[in-house]
């Protein structure tokens, strides 16, 4: 009886058969994932600074209240989304998040090009938010293209990549925060605990 008659094939013939294809579990690039998460945290902080600046500079006009509320809600959503992304390795909102981020980038660009009384004086802060938003979009696009690739990094290299990503995000976030109202009223380093002249801490 031959193999074509239904008999079992010899072991040598079985070895020639290709192994069943197994589903490859995507292992995202950890360094790019960290950069996306850091950028989300930075963008959320900058948008909250924009919200506080808009509210502190106005007296309750409807457009100012709306702009401040939208910036605050978007900043809180970015912070929460970054935490979820770093914890679960997937962006909150799925594929729709790229369209929301693109709309936010357009809004920041419009605020820079066409400032209103609610956004005037926040050009550098808006620019910082725009750059961080574009960084998130670029990182998520990279991760989507590399979803089927395996990418493992040694702990030392991953630590260096995380440090470089955090440094880059901090370099973009810090000027934006400093240019906001929160940054202008921040206590200088070394000035904590020092009251105004003639305070009770001074003799």
From the structure above, extract its key features.
disordered C terminus; 64% helix; mainly alpha; 203 residues
Number of strands: 0
Q: How big a fraction of the residues is strand?
A: under 5%
- Estimate the mean pLDDT confidence: 77
Q: List the domain count as a whole number.
A: 1
Task: Provide a count of the helices.
Answer: 7
Helix residue percentage: 55-70%
Structural class: mainly alpha
Task: Tell me the span between the first and last alpha carbons.
Answer: 108 Å
Unreliable sequence segments: 20-27, 195-203
- The helix/strand series, from N terminus to C terminus, equals HHHHHHH
Shape summary: globular
- Largest sheet entry: none
Radius of gyration: 26 Å
Short characterization:
The chain crosses the membrane at residues 34-55, 67-87, 99-118, 124-143, 155-178. The chain is mostly helical. 64% of the residues lie in helices and 0% in strands.
Report on the structure:
- The chain has 203 residues and is an all-alpha fold.
- Helices cover 64% and strands 0% of the residues.
- The chain has helices spanning 11-16, 30-57, 62-88, 96-113, 123-145, 155-178, 181-184.
- Helix 2 (30-57) packs parallel to helix 6, helix 4 packs antiparallel against helix 5 and helix 5 (123-145) packs antiparallel against helix 6.
- The radius of gyration is 26 Å and the shape is globular.
- The chain crosses the membrane at residues 34-55, 67-87, 99-118, 124-143, 155-178.
List the helices and strands and how they pair.
Layout lengths: L10 H6 L13 H28 L4 H27 L7 H18 L9 H23 L9 H24 L2 H4 L19
Helix pairs in contact: 2-3, 2-5, 2-6, 4-5, 5-6
Keywords: Membrane, Transmembrane, Transmembrane helix
């Amino acid at each position: 009886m031959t193999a074509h008659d239904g008999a079992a094939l010899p072991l040598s013939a079985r070895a020639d058969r290709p192994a069943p294809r197994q589903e490859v579990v995507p292992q995202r690039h950890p360094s790019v994932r960290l950069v996306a998460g850091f950028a989300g945290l930075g963008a959320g902080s900058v948008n909250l600074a924009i919200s506080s600046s808009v509210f502190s500079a106005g007296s309750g006009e409807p457009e100012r209240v709306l702009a401040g509320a939208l910036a605050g809600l978007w900043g809180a959503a970015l912070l929460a989304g970054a935490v979820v992304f770093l914890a679960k390795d997937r962006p909150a909102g799925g594929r729709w998040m790229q369209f929301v981020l693109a709309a936010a980038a357009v809004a920041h660009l419009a605020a820079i090009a066409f400032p209103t009384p609610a956004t005037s004086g926040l050009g550098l802060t808006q620019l910082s938010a725009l750059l961080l938003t574009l960084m998130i979009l670029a990182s998520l696009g990279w991760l989507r293209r590399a979803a089927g690739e395996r990418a493992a990094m040694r702990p030392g290299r991953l630590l260096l990549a995380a440090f470089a990503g955090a440094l880059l995000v901090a370099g973009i976030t810090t000027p934006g925060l400093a240019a906001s109202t929160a940054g202008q009223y921040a206590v200088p380093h070394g000035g904590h605990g020092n009251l105004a002249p003639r305070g009770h801490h001074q003799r």
